[in-house]
Amino acid sequence: MRSKRSRTADGANKVGEVANQPQPGRRANLVQVGKVVCSVAVTSEPWQLDIDAIVVSVGGTLGALGRAVSRQFPGPGWDSIQYREITPVRPRMLDLRDGFSAILASPHDDGVEGEPSLAAVETATTAAIRLAIANRVVGLGLPLLSTGDLGVPDAEVAPVVVRAAIAALGGPTGDLREIIFFGRDMNVEDAIRSAWANAPSPDLGPARFRAIRVDARDGDRRPGNATADFDRRVR
Questions:
Q1: Among 28, 128, 152, 182, who pairs with 15 as Cys (CB 3.0-4.6 Å)?
Q2: How far is residue 46's CA from residue 27's CA, in Å, rounded to a whole number?
Q3: 191 in helix, strand or coil?
Q4: Is pLDDT above 80 for 213?
């Protein structure tokens, strides 16, 4: 059994204080879908966030994030990855150490043999979240797949990833309590905030959806000013 939420960053600060040199753990809550809080963080060390699993992009090999995670958690498991078996609909979970896992997801149509696409990003993100739920993950770190080595703009990927997350959270969510969307700079944060703020109501599903200061950077939840509850239905 993996430990839960054991990787809390020390001295976490508010995302709004991030300047040119973001530090690990700075995050702010954005929305709550059912019982799952969705947050955003600016960090170059996402494994230091309060998560017990992290999604990493793969193609014929590891992407930039996956390489960074593998350096932090070296071990024989990385050499045993069967990349051809990983497709957008079939992510794989790799147990690392200290109750921490990597979820390997492919933003390429049909996996290794296919081209990267936003449709594959959406499918892979939804499948990765569902795999995390099936494996009783409590805190999940989620990047914008395909924005690293593949170089797809953050602003194009963020709405797709948000839509995929909403789809995944429309069903049973198990032990999952938080998804932290993350990136290395403020452009990623801005793209994610904008995507949540503009998420179309038909895509939100039957779950109760709570907006938590989407337009703010301080992460506060002040009564009467911090939240707005509303229901949205599926088409």
A1: 28
A2: 11
A3: helix
A4: no
Residue 70, by phi and psi: left (phi above 0), alpha (psi -120 to 50) or beta?
alpha
Own/partner pairs, 60-64, CB within 8 angstroms, 24+ separation = 60/112, 63/148, 63/149, 63/150, 64/148, 64/149
Contacts of 79 (CB under 8 A, 6+ apart): none
Write out pLDDT tens, residues 25-71.
Answer: 467 889 999 899 999 999 999 999 999 999 999 998 898 999 999 99
**Among 189, 187, 186, which residue's Cα sits nearest to residue 214?**
189
Mean pLDDT, all residues of the chain: 78
Q: Residue 87 — φ and ψ, nearest 5°?
A: -130, 175
Structure tokens at 5: 């939420």
CATH architecture for residues 26-230: 3-Layer(aba) Sandwich (3.40)
Tokens (6 digits) for 153: 């703009």
For 63-92, the pLDDT digits (tens) are 899 999 999 999 989 999 999 999 999 999
Beta strands in the chain (DSSP E): 27-33, 36-42, 53-57, 92-95, 101-105, 139-142, 178-183, 209-212, 227-230
Stretch 106-110: mean pLDDT, rounded? 89
Distance in angstroms (rounded) separating the CA atoms of residues 61 and 148? 13
Q: Are the CB atoms for 57 and 148 separated by under 8 Å?
A: yes
101 backbone dihedrals φ, ψ, rounded to 5°: -135, 155
